[in-house]
Amino acid sequence: MASVAVAEALLSLTSLKVNIKWPNDILIKGRKVAGILTEISTEMDRIDYVVIGVGVNVNTPRKGLPPDIAHTATSVFMETGKVFPRIALLRAYLEWLEIYYEAFKTKGFDPILNRWKHLADIIGRRISVDLMDSVRVGKVLDVDKDGFLILQDRVGTIERIISGDVTLLSQE
After folding, report:
1. Using one digit for the tens of pLDDT, what is the confidence trace for 72-113?
2. What is the DSSP letter of 95?
3. Domains of the chain, each with CATH number or no CATH
4. Cβ pair 129, 165 in contact under 8 A
5. CA distances from residue 103 to 48, 67, 97, 113 in whole angstroms, order as listed
6. Which phi and psi angles does 66 have, rounded to 5°?
7. Which residues, in sequence order, are CB contacts of 101 under 8 Å at separation 6+?
8. Contacts of 93 (CB under 8 A, 6+ apart)
9. E strand or H helix at 51
10. pTM for this prediction
């Protein structure tokens, strides 16, 4: 929900093409413009709280990026050539988060997941996923209702991936 809200905020305020990289990075032209981290506290039958941390590169110039990420990161400023009002982006993000939270309460998670899938454009793509102890390569079949990536390797084995660093591969 948080990544969809960030993407929607950027789409509503700019003319930039925005994509979501599974599970929660926001990309413009394949470069990371935002990232989201969450922390959750639960009990057996309920969620106590969820903390959402959002970082967006808004007015960072190219020379302001650390050398180790200069080739993989971007900012709204770098993509538009204009200084962008951060408060407008924050306001739009909070409005979209509220819209999607209300939708979740009334319609469930499916509409949000469907919008996420549209913005991610990953279904059917070949990827590699760097896990802690291995790398998996395959075709993305889906993202399930729990947010797991459903990956099929070359021999047809299907695996649910909970987390990892995804790299899009060329299509064969």
Report:
1. 999 999 999 999 999 999 999 999 999 999 999 999 999 999
2. H
3. 2-120 (3.30.930.10), 126-168 (2.30.30.100)
4. yes
5. 20, 41, 10, 11
6. -60, 145
7. 1
8. 5, 6, 9, 54
9. strand 47-56
10. 0.90
Structure-block tokens of residue 154: 């070359």
CA separation for the pair 112, 45 (Å, rounded): 23
Tally of CB atoms within 10 A around 29: 12
Structure tokens at 69: 């990420």
The rounded distance, in Å, linking the Cα atoms of 30 and 27 is 5
DSSP string, 103-151: HHHHH-SHHHHHHHHHHH--TT-EEEEE-SS-EEEEEEEEE-TTS-EEE
> Average pLDDT, whole number, for the chain?
94
DSSP alpha helix (H) spans, 31-85: 76-80
Q: Which residue has the tokens 């390569």?
A: 137
The residue to which tokens 């099929």 are assigned: 152
Q: Which two three-digit tokens encode residue 65?
A: 């990026």
Using alpha carbons, select from 41, 36, 18 the residue that is nearest to residue 28: 18
